[in-house]
Amino acid sequence: MLDALYIAAIGLQAQKEQLDAVANNLANAGTTAFKRQSVDFSAILDRASPATGANAIGATDNRPNRLLRFDAAPGDVRQTGRPLDVAILGPGFFEVELPGDKVGYSRVGSLQVNADGVLALSTGQVLKADVRIPADAHDVRVLADGSVTAVIPGDVSPTDTVAPATVLGQIELATFPSPESLTYQGDGVFTAPEGLEPARARPGEDGSQALAVQSLEGSNINLTDEMVTMMLMQRIYELNSRVAQVADELVGMSNNMRRS
Questions:
Q1: 7 and 103 together in one domain
Q2: Contact at 8 Å (CB) between 8 and 247?
């Protein structure tokens, strides 16, 4: 009977984590480049062993990200017409700078020029490519090969009929053989395990695809699938609750028999 209570507790914890993941997926269905998350049930079982009991179950609350897996499948690409919007076609990530001299990886292609004149993600992380935009530059664009160009007034000569574009920097793509091994940090940014280095290449070279310019990648969330999963998880949660209730009743009956 105690085993039944333990199994029910593991089941309740697992379904709670999965319901939280589904709710997060639904909330981010419209978020740029968001990747579907699901729970690694084997990780819950590994942590919650009979030797550690309820303490192991509670410990999962302190490290929720390690329970999550993400689906690396690309989302649909939609045009925006904004010159600094780019979408990655196929595998790959943009490299960004994180606090503590760490490197992050993101597919969020909504770029902007921050207050320091550096190209960054819309969520604030600066591109590791360190592309700096002069204050007087205009018509800043990201091209399909990852080069960043702008028109700078000082570069125009009297003989120019059309202002030439100056290349200010180059964005490369970082690819991993198993992107599922990355850890999600929030704001569309992932980190790689220690010792895992990506392969880097310009978009369109070394087997990578060119960027989709003036476009953004949508999330890979299927609302219908998520709603079906949510209903299934709720039902399983109810069944585990019933198992725990029945096991508790049996324990009570056993105690009463001993007293009598």
A1: no
A2: yes
Say if residue 113 is in the same domain as residue 154. yes
Instruction: Specify the pairing of strand 189-191 against strand 102-106.
Output: antiparallel
Tokens of 96: 């960004």
* CB 180 within 8 Å of CB 70: yes
* DSSP per residue, 6-55: HHHHHHHHHHHHHHHHHHHHHHTTTSTT---EEE-HHHHHHH--TTTTHH
Residue 65 has pLDDT above 80, yes or no: no
| Residue listed under structure tokens 């997060």 | 24
Check residue 222 and give its pLDDT.
93
Domain of residue 167, residue span: 77-217
Buried-state track 178-201, b at ≥16 Cβ within 10 A, e below 16? ebeebeebeebbbebeeeeebeeb
Closest C-alpha to 16, from 71, 69, 67: 67
Q: Is the domain of 207 the same as that of 240?
A: no
**Cα 49 to chain center, whole Å?**
29
Tell me the pTM. Answer: 0.76
What pLDDT digit, counting tens, does each position of 202-228 carry? 999 988 899 999 999 999 999 999 988
Residues 228 and 212 in one domain: no
One domain, residues 85 and 26: no
> Does residue 143 share a domain with residue 112?
yes
Q: CA 207, 210, 211, 215: dihedral to nearest 10 degrees?
A: -120
| Structural domain count, the chain | 2
Q: Please compute the mean of the pLDDT values over residues 30-49 and round it to a whole number.
A: 76
- Amino acid 14: pLDDT: 73
Cα 53 off chain centre by: 31
Kindly state whether residues 95 and 117 are assigned to the same domain.
yes
